[in-house]
What we know:
Blueprint: H1 2-58, E1 70-72, E2 78-82, E3 85-101, E4 122-127, E5 131-139, E6 145-153, E7 163-164, E8 169-170, E9 182-188, E10 191-199, H2 201-204, E11 237-245, E12 252-259, E13 301-310, E14 313-326, E15 339-354, E16 357-368, E17 382-392, E18 398-406, E19 411-412, E20 421-422, E21 428-438, E22 443-454, E23 481-482, E24 490-491, E25 502-513
Antiparallel strand pairs: 1-2, 2-3, 3-4, 3-5, 3-25, 5-6, 6-9, 7-8, 9-10, 10-11, 11-12, 12-13, 13-14, 14-15, 15-16, 16-17, 17-18, 18-21, 19-20, 21-22, 22-25, 23-24
Amino acid sequence: MHKLIAFTFALVLGTSSAAYADDAADTKARIDALQAQLDAIKAQLEALKAQQQAKPQASAAPAAAPAPAVGLKKGDAVTFLIGGEEVTLYGNLDLSVDTTTKGLAKHYVESGDSPVGNVGYLTGLSTNLSYVGVRGTHKLGNRSGLAYQLETQIDVSSTSGTVNTNSNSDSIVKGGLTSRNSFIGITNPFGSLKLGKTDAPYKTSTARMNPFNSEIGDYAVVMGNTGGDNRVEFGTRLDHSIWYESPNLHGFNLNLLVSPGQNRASDSSNIAAGESSCAGGNVPGSGATPPFCNDGAWASVYSGSATWQTGKAYLVAAYEMHKKVNRTSDLANLDPNDVGDEQAWKGGLQFAPSKATTFSMLYENMARYVPQYLQYQNERTRDGFWLALTQYVNANDNLNFGWARANPTPGDPGQHNTSGGMHPDNMANMYTFAFKHPIDKHTLWYFDWALTVNHHDAHYDLGAGGRGLTTDCHDATQLTAFDPTVTPPVSGTGPHCYAGGHLQGFSSGVDIRF
């Protein structure tokens, strides 16, 4: 019995040990298989890691940084690069201290009175044709572009506003946005076609012959100035214009402009459609006249110039026509026949025999077409001359001399101390001198002197052409104006313009360009 139990126990134990041995062997096999899989995965990870480390070494050149959206182009001009196109900011700041005199007599026998106020030397600060602008071209293919420019006047020494003097009033704010040459246009190898407002070709074609630009000796005192007042009729900016500028063809350039009248009145007595002032300046009723555009307002304007630069010489010919110019306010009876066309043409030569010396010579003829019986008051038909010399005394400094001559006119409407009529003695001469010293390539200091010598019936001024301060024939008599508080309902008797003055002035200023 005991032997049977022992045998049975031994049999069970042997069977269990065999089973255990079999399970252990199976488990070991599974572990070995799992280890092999782990080793394979580890090898793959090592390979991937090696590939990742090898990639930066393969691209030796770093990727280029993206170009900025807005940049500044190298050079003297303030030019921004915006989206691959250029936009230039530019400007001119000119500020001077002036002292000028009207050069009038203390008493005039012809009028039996004396000029009112200070007509002697007066000192003041003047901002002279200062402006800022932005311009650029948007590409429209390989050979064409959309050109644009926005430009405005900057009044440094005075507050921007409308023009209100004792001789004229104007609603235009010259310091307002885009008050100066502003346009859009198409450019290509055949030239440029632009729309907007601009200095007329008649004006710009001879600007290089005027070394006194914006100074008291500016040739605009006589050239392009038919009546001798502050307004320069044939040296002006024209609104609502369309013009063509040719490419440079072996030194030859052609510029043509038309400015539609946009006036519903057949005699130009309305303000042009879309404008705020009469054509040519002034609001209706300016200068104590009836409330119409009858003090030199015009309808359509046509202007053109042809220039040729050849070697040391520059030749120019220019023409301009103003249609239906209304000057009925020159006559007490407002004669409707005093509306006529006015034209001007000029030709000139500039010659530079050396880099140090430049001569300029210009002849101009202006005419107003009115009936014969109105010729007695026609002060707009005449011719004139301009001579100028620029001489460098060293590498930087230069001296400038100028002489302008206005010949007599067929008639004269008369001033406060003159009776007017046929064959007046209204000749005038202007003499100018200026010394200019560049401080650097952007800054210029200048000193100039000018003298306008009017004959007995003439009243040419100093400073015409856009300066902040002008000196003219008017005294300080209060402007004639409507006043309902008095009887009759008019106050003031002025302004009084005294002809024959010898106007003289001195000016020193600084001009900064960028």
